[in-house]
Amino acid sequence: MSPDRPGGEGMAVPGSAGLSRPGLRGREAELERLRALVEAVQGGQGGAIALLLGEPGIGKTALLQETLSTARAHGFVVSHGHAEELHELAPLASLASGLLHGDPPLLSGADFADLAGHHDQRIWLVERLAQLIEERAALTPVLIAVDDVQWADPLSRFALSVMPARLLSSPVLWLLTGRNDPELYGQGPRTTTLPLRPLSDTALAELARDVLGGDAPTQVAKLLDGAGGNPFLAAEMLTGIAASGTDATEPTEPPERLVLGVRDRLADLRPDTLHFLRIGSVLGRAFSLADAAALCGRPASALSAEVDEAIAAALLHDDGERLVFRHDLLRQAVYADLAPSVRRALHREAASRLVAAGRSSTDAVPHLLKSAEPGDQEAIGLLGEAATDVIAVMPDLAADLAVRALELASPHAPMVFDVGERAIVALTRAGRYTQARDVGDTLLARQPPLDVFARLQSVLGDTLWHLDDVHELTRRSTAALAAVTDPVIRARLTARQALARSRGRDLGAARETGERALAEAERSGDREARVLALWGLGEIALNAGDCAAAVAHHTALSVFDTAFLPEEAVARIHMDDFDTVRRLLRTAGDAPLRPAMLIWAQGTLNMGLGRLDDADADLVTAERLEADLHVPGNLVNIRVNRGLLAMLRGDREAAREHLGVVRATVAERPNTGNHATHQYFEAVVADADGDHAAAAELIRSVQRDHPFLRWRLLRPHVVQAVRIALRGGDRNLAEDLAAQAAEHATRNPSVPTAQGTAAHAAGLVNADPGLLERSVRVLLTGPRPLPLAAASADLGRALLTAGDPAATPALTRAHDIYAQAGADVEADRVRADPERATSRSGRRTGGLRPRPGQGWDALTASERKVARLIAAGHTNRSAAQALVVSPHTVNTHLASIFRKLSVRSRVHLARIALAEGDAGTVTGG
């Protein structure tokens, strides 16, 4: 036999007696590792992933089936899905094929119907699916297997990339087979990768003995070298030898049909059966008799002889619903015998017949992708229809389909502009903005009619907005408005123009444009134009610092479209209306809205409330959700805020890590909207490092884009910016910042934070304790503790300098607020002066003890609440309900808990919580 397959490679490992048997020869070591994984998951060691990788026929499915049997014997509920090459357009088909058909099924039909009702919300759907699996796994361990994952539909791939980490602590074993590493899994469960190598000589000899009933003659052993160690090919060759009655002692070379094994059986089939099999190979590995009959042009009842003969030849089997090629290699062998032109024609005919039979475009499109020729109008229409059907849940696939439709359309046909418009929308939805703009510019270069020109510029407006090219957006929308006659497109263009002008300097003109857009949208009755106009008006109001107007517009928008509830929440946070924000977020619950933005709003609220640990967890969650969707649009703002939180805690190392991510992101995806927050974060770090002049210059760079208070995310930090300016010796900059704060307060007379911050900034610039005292008095009426602590600290220092004993309560208040918030560096700074009254009053003078990195004491207060609930038997969803937070946030807390406690399962967590005596009742607050 071949010298590169050592004879000992497939020998049984210690303790594996009885594992090796026909169909599993040479896989003893892999079986042992898979058995160990099953036992580990059953034993409470948390979730795990196993990947079986290798070429077709190498034995992946046989190992998978054996592992399923082992898991069932260990009490697992098993789901076995199978991805199919021609079913990549059916959302969640690869997973659902197993989840609904187990014995017992992992999900009920009602559960799946609930999921299907929200199939256009990927994050919500996957979270809900994970919740259902988690609830089932709380009762019995679960194994979820997907065979041939390389062909999984995009939604199943997305679910498989997210759910293993989400279910890290639950007894769920994921078993995936594929030809290459699908790289689906995120950070979470341990992953065991088993690349299946060619069988050893020993294993091939055992396989030959199984098939032939005795030791293989030397000549047969030599013939098996042609299988290359592939067990399926070897078995086919051996079966062919046994069936043909070849005398293995004869030195003649075998006929070519024995190399693949398949052709021996094909050659003996009746022509009608061979034709039937070829038709079936075009339809896929599994196909319905009705579809094959339609393509054959014969009634299904007339094909019974062909079906029987194919089954008798061990080429097909009947699973009760469909006919299935016994192995995909068999299908490929039949398919390969078709001439390319015949294949293409059969695929095209299959698509037409499927559509004629009332099947969906997702059934027909895989065939069109293999067969459609330029100018094929039916194919173009079906590709576009399929793109529209899947765009919400599989935007990248929708973009590919829409682009293919455009490629098929004649560049001179009038329909090319409609097809191209759909491609621009799909590419933009998929985040492929540059490609979308290029497609649009190519279409515009063909000089379409004026109304078409305006319509294309309207859809390109969304693309340019995401590219942050507001100048080009303004230019194009202005040009299109000069040509448009359709009132709907006019309203949309005007709204786009208002949105672009929200980034400009003349916000008064922007507001007028937005109001005109809203009036046009109402007259035209167009929903998209109304949403754009309200959104633009809300953005303009926030940028102008008119918080009340921003709330009015964003409230109207969220009433009209609940997907914009996060924008209303953020606008109300600017108004200090925290109670209403809590109600809004509680109302949203786990509704299928925009979860990343909802969590961002929750994080913004927690920052305002001084709940630094919770805010950081929210920001981590928002970043993870954006990463799951591959749309990190808010990454810079998230990391800047996390960096500023780290600075408050005194964790310079973490702050620098966040700054590194910000720098890399800005370099990779330049965006003027991110410039100010980035430069401010750089300034804070430089100031902390003692480079006060550089820090002040960075603040000035923010001002050069727009006044500091124009940047909404920076408004809570204006006092810090004033301090940086003063330390950098730039009094003019400090006065300018204080004046902006005063103007903002004038625009928002009912917002305590705006009033108190303005007084605080003026008090620092003018070294006026009276203004600082006023700041404290006003901020005491507001909901934000950290601005109150900062003002109290500055007031206390000023009073200490004046020898005023009123310094004591001011400094004590500042210290206590900072300490409660976890702003350790600020609390220690308030403590630092030995002259301070807090030291003389008998309070402890040592600095705050930093929280350790590992162990129970490393957990934040919220993490302890989550740990207690999980230890008490709650699922992530029920824990979220008890704490009145998002399940996504509970997921983040739980991942942090596991990391800090070095545990992998809920069982281990419960033991630690019990040992700590920390299993009391927990409620939200």
Structural account:
There is one protein chain. This protein has 925 residues and is mainly alpha-helical. The strands form 2 sheets. The protein has a 5-stranded parallel β-sheet, with helices on both faces. A 3-stranded antiparallel β-sheet has the order 6-8-7. Strand 7 (316-318) and strand 8 (323-325) form a beta hairpin. Helix 40 (785-801) packs antiparallel against helix 41 (807-821), helix 44 (861-871) crosses helix 47 and helix 45 crosses helix 46. The longest helix has 18 residues, at 507-524. The termini are far apart.
DSSP E strands, number: 8
Query: What is the arithmetic mean of pLDDT?
Result: 87
- Write out the strand line-up for the largest beta sheet, numbering strands in chain order: 2-3-4-1-5
Which percent band covers the strand fraction?
Answer: under 5%
Gross geometry: globular
Largest sheet: 5 strands, parallel
